[in-house]
Amino acid sequence: MAVQSLLPTTTTTHLLYSNGTSLSPLSMKTTITPNKSVVFNDFVGLYCKSKRTPRKIGVGTSSRGSLLKTWSTTSKAVFSSNLQPKTTSNIDSNKKKSESKVANLEDILSERGACGVGFIANLDNIATHQTVKDALTALSCMEHRGGCGADNDSGDGSGLMTLIPWDLFDNWANKQGLALLDKSHTGVGMVFLPKDDESMKEAKRVIIDTFKQEGLEVLGWRPVPVNTSIVGRFAKETMPNIQQVFVKILKDEEIGDIEREMYICRKLIEKAVKSEKWGEELYFCSLSSQTIVYKGMLRSEVLGLFYSDLQSDLYKSPFAIYHRRYSTNTSPRWPLAQPMRFLGHNGEINTIQGNLNWMQSRETSLKSPVWHGRENEIRPYGNPRASDSANLDSAAELLIRSGRNPEEALMILVPEAYKNHPTLMIKYPEVADFYDYYKGQMEAWDGPALLLFSDGKTVGACLDRNGLRPARYWRTVDNVVYVASEVGVLPMDESKVTMKGRLGPGMMITVDLQDGQVYENTEVKKRVALSNPYGKWLKENMRTLKSVNFLPQTEMDNDEILRHQQAFGYSSEDVQMVIETMAAQGKEPTFCMGDDIPLAVLSQKPHMLYDYFKQRFAQVTNPAIDPLREGLVMSLEVNIGKRGNILEVGPENAEQVMLSSPVLNEGELESLMKDSRLKAQILPIFFDIRKGVDGSLEKALKRLCEAADDAVRNGSQLLVLSDRSEEMEPTRPAIPVLLAVGAVHQHLIQNGLRISASIIADTAQCFSTHQFACLIGYGASGVCPHLALETCRQWRLSNKTVNQMRNGKMPTVTIEQAQKNFCKAVKSGLLKILSKMGISLLSSYCGAQIFEIYGLGSEIVDLAFCGSVSKIGGLTLDELARETMSFWVKAFSEDTAKRLENFGFIQMRVGGEYHGNNPEMSKLLHKAVRERNESAFSVYQQHLANRPVNVLRDLIEFKSDRPSIPVGKVESAASIVQRFCTGGMSLGAISRETHEAIAIAMNRLGGKSNSGEGGEDPIRWSPLSDVVDGYSSTLPHLKGLQNGDTATSAIKQVASGRFGVTPTFLVNADQLEIKIAQGAKPGEGGQLPGKKVSAYIARLRNSKPGVPLISPPPHHDIYSIEDLAQLIYDLHQVNPKAKVSVKLVAEAGIGTVASGVAKGNADVIQISGHDGGTGASPISSIKHAGGPWELGLTETHQTLIENGLRERVILRVDGGFKSGVDVLMAAAMGADEYGFGSVAMIATGCVMARICHTNNCPVGVASQREELRARFPGVPGDLVNFFLYVAEEVRGILAQLGYDKLDDIIGRTDLLRPRHVSIVKTQQLDLGYILSSVGLPKWSSTAIRSQDVHSNGPVLDDILLSDPEIIDAIEHEKAVCKTIKIYNIDRAVCGRIAGVVAKKYGDTGFAGQLNITFTGSAGQSFACFLTPGMNIRLVGEANDYVGKGMAGGELIVTPVESTGFCPEEATIVGNTCLYGATGGQVFIRGKTGERFAVRNSLAQAVVEGTGDHCCEYMTGGCVVVLGKVGRNVAAGMTGGLAYILDEDDTLIPKVNKEIVKIQRVTAPAGQIQLKNFIESHVEKTGSSKGFAILKEWEKYLPLFWQLVPPSEEDTPEACFDFEVAAAQVSLQSA
């Protein structure tokens, strides 16, 4: 029935719109203008065309049975701006790839993706065609989780894996006159062959020859019947010739042996064709005697039409795995569609570069008797040019073909977070032993992942350790099990469903087709773990490094310590601001205002090598992890010693030493040196310059690598690279330890020795978290920072410190404690750096090279950091040697200062490093804008022109291809300023005065200000009409006002904390910005210190005054690219008039991410540079993450053009903009709009005191203190003047260049050339990438900027809003009742209705009642942004993000009346519900997924069970849970109350006790509150669980726990004594 809708509709079919109106094809044509094809499409982010009949929906009736007939059809979307398909060739940037075998980051970054997946399995192992039909239907209902190319039609990929359909192939063989196939001895290959006939013949010849050599007989080739007419244009250009090859295997009987033979053949074929020019075009989707994969670059709904086999009744299988891909890269390749040969993967592997390097380094050691000595022939095991999914599939395939079962292979590769798991450690210790054993053998493939797998005998699914992808499962009475990314993908009779659940973090479910059993998580793992005595092996062989006390005295005198610090590059800032702060406080120092000094390579001051590296971070394709609140999934443990042969299991593999962290003190390093089994070898790292500097460093590195090689070959399992020496010698400087570690690591990988030994750095040149991270990222397993520890000891023993502690000016710490504090700060910093990239385990981070390089040349990179991206080239080894020497010589010169030099890298100081935002600059700017003095502005411009080289654009200048023109002919300043925006500075980080003055100025100009992440006061949304003499009683704290001014921010920001994000806030925006990352601290959430949370700020943010506010590092509704597309959809839903912008931070690979964002239907993409400002961030984040916007913008602009997506989005850029020159540089590199942050604050009065994080800003710009805010000097006119000056500067340069409008130079890199300017450190910088061009957009920038807001197309809300009764109810505040059917493809339902209500009545003003009942399976974000008066009931089930951002109303979710399962045991809504809710009530009869009520501000909810992280970051409201919860309850919960029923006494270990207090419900008001909620729940949902509790209230009440954060301790609900005290007070007052 459902599959009919997958067949092509006839031309006479009328298009039925979702509201039931029909368009005949003829009448439809008349609405299309010639040559502009309006695409009627399925909304897939990229408006993929749908070729299906839309469903008909009638409103107000509950019976819509006819709908099931067109089940799998989806609502259509019309792309409002008539975007035409693009024709661009995908230009290949043939950069010279290093010939090394090491994984190259650029290859890895070019392919990333996410998806929707699922499987169907028949437990009776009965093969039917229905299974295949159902899989295709389910696939069609996940079309919105996939992506499309710029032609709107080429899917990013979809596919099916099933058992081989022997009936179908027998039928074919019969027709060909061949004998029937012998199933037990026949293999089938699904092959993508080259398109070109000649190449195809050659490829077939290689395949046939290889099979023949292996003794296999090729029975025949079958061209796979396909319908090419439905393939999109881009996909067609690369479409392979698809054939199946049938081979007979005679020599093997066992299935395992047959599959291994197939595997060897495939590997031999891949090797044989590698050097052919068509080699990349040959690909085996599958080659097996069990399973087969049908896939392609297709949209999910056309997969079944493309492969006619899939429509045949003879195609039968007992199971099917299906997959729909969303690739961030818009030119996905056919082979990268999924499923792969074993796996269907939805997610992203963040550690892929390290995984590939480690897989390669273990190639020589992998041996197993099953291969009969043929291991050499099956290498390599990875391919950097394939996707992360393909590589994970290869690793799993290797393990399975070597004899592991699929469950075991996945437990090894993707282990769960077993360390902090109360139930696992107590009930299933053998599972923990299994993980402990393999932890030292295989680094986890870490990142968000839902993995579906099958070898033909078992079908299963498992989830990553953090539960970051949705996975729901259900089972029916007819013995079929379903797993899918979403519920509702298939029509289901709920009375036949016997089980409903979800996979939680690290969980697995498998179906054994042979014995017809379903095994849930612990059953699967227990079986695997008991197969060997892992616990015994660990006990006998694994050693744990015992902690050793720190040294109690300094080892050197003060002069000697100083000389060492000078030689190794320490500055006084490093010692005082970094090391001493960490020793005193045990945490990293916080600073503000961003990084405005030159990149290390541009600086005139010497820098340590680490400063050339920037940390990479997660944005969009995977989330950062939260090390503060979700640290339970993270671990710094690392194993030292030889890694064994992963293909063989045995006690010897456990012979390692386990370190609890990589930070070692001197005593611990000594213990490792004494371990007889490790045979540690010290390798000194110095280079000799007696014969001159040139060549000396290279020679020393060569010798070092040879020594390392010899040591490992002689049995050493631990190499200690050390720069300690008895006596420092002037002619023997230390090699930078990062260079030494990287070189040895790479050398050992190349020589196949890397897994035989671990590397530890014993070094003086490591003291900050970034430096530790670099050493570990490039291969060190441990670091002993001996000089940093010595510096801690020196500080603690100094007279100054002793006196300060004695006088109470700082807390007293012992010398032991000071060193402990330092190490503690390093460890927390490391967790934060790992988590930025979404990596949970240090063992996976080690060697993963999660950095990019700015300013090192290929000579250095290829030697020590092979595979890392270094786009601009830079220093040679000799130049690096000279820079190293410039530190070293300071220790030996006669006039050595008696104190460390202050380089001024952090704080501006005279004679120190140049800072872009300096006092002189701000004084000149204040003079120009306050006096409105043009000549003063010229002095400001001159100051900028004369500055030292500070940013990459300072190395570039303009050139013109035409004569200049008069300025009068150039576009007006009034037009140019409309392209200007200000940065997203939150009200809270800056004062109300600054925030409002900036907004008023931008509104006067017609530019855009940005609210930042703190919400906004509604009083600002109306124009002022009461201004007298520049003052208004509406905004009495501002001066310089005019009637008609508005203080609203045109851009309203949605950040991860969702502070202040209400429906009314959203509908009052011109643009909505999703802040994925911030330039000053990408990968981290915002933080507002408690002292800046005034009563006013707390009111806007729905939180408590004085309580610090921290935003989560990730958006909890964006764990992948398709999640971002969903949030964009939600925002377009609630405010269809607002453009949605996505803010990213520059890093290598941003072009790929931006392509995905453009496909996700964003209107604007903003690229921020690393030098943006911040109100408060850790120093290491400000200094060491993110890249220059010049590179990020160039990569984004060019990738979008190559992929035909540039016209879809406005490109905006910000980061350190100060002048018209900056604007024009950005324009030439491709930007349409320009953001100014810090300089806009300076123009309104900021004096760059750089103490924003302290709340003590002397001019009230960044303070919430009333007395300081009263000093605020700025008026809106100052900022207006600044922007008009900048616009005039732009006009002047345009006139000089001979252009009359900005449009004409956007993307024109041919107008730029390198400037002849000398840099102190190197002349090797290469700006070719920034100056290159791949063509121009097809539309002008003005056309791109003025296109309509991208549409979600017709949606269910539109149908409801077109109903006269609903219109009347909203218009006249009446009550109305409606019932309507809902499907999983109906997403963000109610959001648009809520927007209409909020626009008219605000968040609380609506007095009507919209009572709407939905029946069925709701799509994502159901009931988002509800307002009071909206009473929504869902009878059925829902997916993720239910009740997101709701501000009021009531939401009830219950299963249908007659279910085959027990409602309170079933999961009926998905993950991350009530995210950022600010009001309303929710009642759910059943369980929910992970992160229920995350960042809930004021909503009240009753549910019957939740997953992990319930009530995380909650700041208000109340949550009642009548069942089991997962781990980490109430992490970061600073407000509100939670009541949790604990029937089996297991709750206490699951609660995060950092903030909340756990107590029984003793306060009478609390008991009444709890009982009232349960009574409402029973009344509204009919809950049998709630009914049972009320019936035996006295028995159940003592089983409830109440979780109380400090801010709620004195409330009547939480405080037993409250009523007693209140009674006493009332007596006294009487």
From TrEMBL:
Cofactor list = [3Fe-4S] cluster; FMN
Which GO terms of the cellular component aspect does the record hold? chloroplast
What the entry lists under Gene3D superfamilies is as follows: Aldolase class I, Glutamate synthase, alpha subunit, C-terminal domain, Glutamine Phosphoribosylpyrophosphate, subunit 1, domain 1
Q: Which PROSITE patterns match?
A: GATASE_TYPE_2 (PS51278)
The protein's UniProt keywords, in alphabetical order, are:
3Fe-4S, Amino-acid biosynthesis, Flavoprotein, FMN, Glutamate biosynthesis, Glutamine amidotransferase, Iron, Iron-sulfur, Metal-binding, Oxidoreductase
Q: Which domain of life is it from?
A: Eukaryota
- Tell me, which GO biological process terms does this entry list? ammonia assimilation cycle; glutamate biosynthetic process
Looking at the record, the residues that make up the Glutamine amidotransferase type-2 domain are 115-514
Q: Which GO terms fall under molecular function for this chain's record?
A: 3 iron, 4 sulfur cluster binding; glutamate synthase (ferredoxin) activity; metal ion binding
**Pathway given in the UniProt record:** Nitrogen metabolism; Energy metabolism; nitrogen metabolism; Amino-acid biosynthesis; L-glutamate biosynthesis via GLT pathway; L-glutamate from 2-oxoglutarate and L-glutamine (ferredoxin route): step 1/1
Q: What is its EC number?
A: 1.4.7.1
Similarity annotation: Belongs to the glutamate synthase family.
> What is the protein name for this chain?
glutamate synthase (ferredoxin)
